[in-house]
Amino acid sequence: MKQLLRHEAPALLITLVSALLLALGSDDWRLAFVPFLFLAWWLYLRLLRLERWIDNGMKPADAPHDSGLVGEILRQLVRRARAQGKRKKRINQLLKRINRQIAALPDATLVLGPQLEIEWSNAPAELLLGIRHPADRGQQLGNLLRDEKLLRYIRNPIGRKPFEAPSPVDPQIQLRFRSVPIDRRQRLLIVRNISEQKQMEQALKQFVAHASHELKTPLTTISGYLEMLEDEPGISDAGRQALSVANEQAGRMEQLIRDLLQLSRLESRTLETDEGEELDLLEVSQRLIDGLPDADQRRRVRVHTVPGLKLRGSRLELESILQNLIDNALKYTEGKVELKAAEDEDGQIVLEVEDQGPGIPREELQSIRRHYYRGKDTTARRIPGSGLGLAIVEEAARLHGARLEIDSDPERGSRFRVIFPAWRNLRKDKDAPGIVRL
């Protein structure tokens, strides 16, 4: 402050002395204000230069020279401008480095605005989608990719698996689109070439389907002959035992083939968010229980749900989920099996199957989700199965955007929960009494 006063002091002193002399040497005291007007005009000119410099971008090299109050303001602004310039330079370097890294990605990557206008794209986007940068910058994505289902997915990817479609450049190229919201105004679109992967998956599915189909008929014939041989009177006890084991293994092979065909069908199927029929969970559950072959099994399964709880989905896949979970529960317990259909606080539909069996060891909880995995207790107790039941449940759940949760306690048994997203929930009156909320 003292330095500022020292720089402004000569001008103030000259102004005061001039005003005093004019006041003493003239009969008109108003002339004393003239020096102050010149001081104000001088200060205005200095501030005007400062304003023009700010308006021209505050370049430090073009800063006007001044002292006093205006000079101090200039020095502060120059320091800030230089610091901002360094910060801007670092940010620009960082952005260039990020752009180079993104551009080097093998996947096509696009940054889209709120109206799906293209703000940025990398080189693979031109190879896979025909979108050029910067020529197509600002273009609406819908003007270049005329697939309404794809555009709906990009706008709202919540609850949907990545979208797959052929490339607009080459229909032989299969692409997988993944839309990731960045913020409220921008989203990232990542597109991957999955042609080789799809070809391998298709070849594997065809192999499994063909092998299963070819094995199905001979196995049925073999099983029939084995059953006939078991009834023959002249066979020894050891031979009858061998036939029984062979028949059991043939039945297991038949079950494995059925499960493989079902899993292959599920993996090749898609289900859109608005696709499917209206399914009453009480009706589907009760119908499934009534269809159990054994009267004792029907008595052991208790259904806990209420009328009015409905979801949109595939009846066949929903029945597959319930069938596999109930069959597993009945195999592992001689007690009651609880089948519950409820709604949680978020409006999600929860299907739960709980048994009173021996439970699943903690070290096996993750392994039982693997294809063909059968627990130690399962093999020790010679419980039949293909090891694909939970894989079928998970695939049918994924088809609906649902997830499978498993909880087990050796003292209380096991609980399997399939949680369907709220947008699958079709119950009209959300506040109706009697709806159980978990």
Keywords:
single chain, alpha+beta, Beta-Lactamase, 5-stranded mixed β-sheet
Helix and strand topology:
Elements: H1 2-25, H2 34-55, H3 68-103, E1 108-112, E2 118-121, H4 123-129, H5 141-144, H6 148-155, E3 163-166, E4 174-181, E5 187-193, H7 195-230, H8 237-267, E6 277-280, H9 281-290, H10 295-300, E7 301-304, E8 310-313, H11 315-332, E9 337-343, E10 349-354, H12 376-380, H13 389-399, E11 403-409, E12 413-420
Parallel strand pairs: 7-9
Antiparallel strand pairs: 1-2, 1-5, 3-4, 4-5, 6-8, 9-10, 10-12, 11-12
Helix pairs in contact: 1-2, 7-8, 8-13, 11-13
Explain briefly what this protein structure is.
By secondary structure, the protein is an alpha+beta fold.
- Count of strand segments: 12
Helix content: 40-55%
In percent, how much strand structure appears in the residues?
15-25%
Q: Major sheet, described briefly? A: 5 strands, antiparallel
Q: Based on the structure given, which CATH architecture of the largest domain is correct?
A: 2-Layer Sandwich
Q: From the helix content, strand content and strand pairing, which structural class follows? A: alpha+beta
Overall average pLDDT: 78
| End-to-end gap | 70 Å
Q: For the CA atoms, what is the radius of gyration?
A: 39 Å
Sheet with most strands: strand arrangement: 2-1-5-4-3
What form results from the Cα inertia axes?
elongated
CATH superfamily of the largest domain, please? Answer: Histidine kinase-like ATPase, C-terminal domain
The CATH C-level name of the largest domain is: Alpha Beta
In terms of per-residue confidence, which ranges show pLDDT below 50 for 5 or more consecutive residues?
432-438
Order of helices and strands: HHHEEHHHEEEHHEHHEEHEEHHEE
CATH topology of the largest domain: Heat Shock Protein 90
Q: Count of helices?
A: 13
Task: Tally the structural domains.
Answer: 4
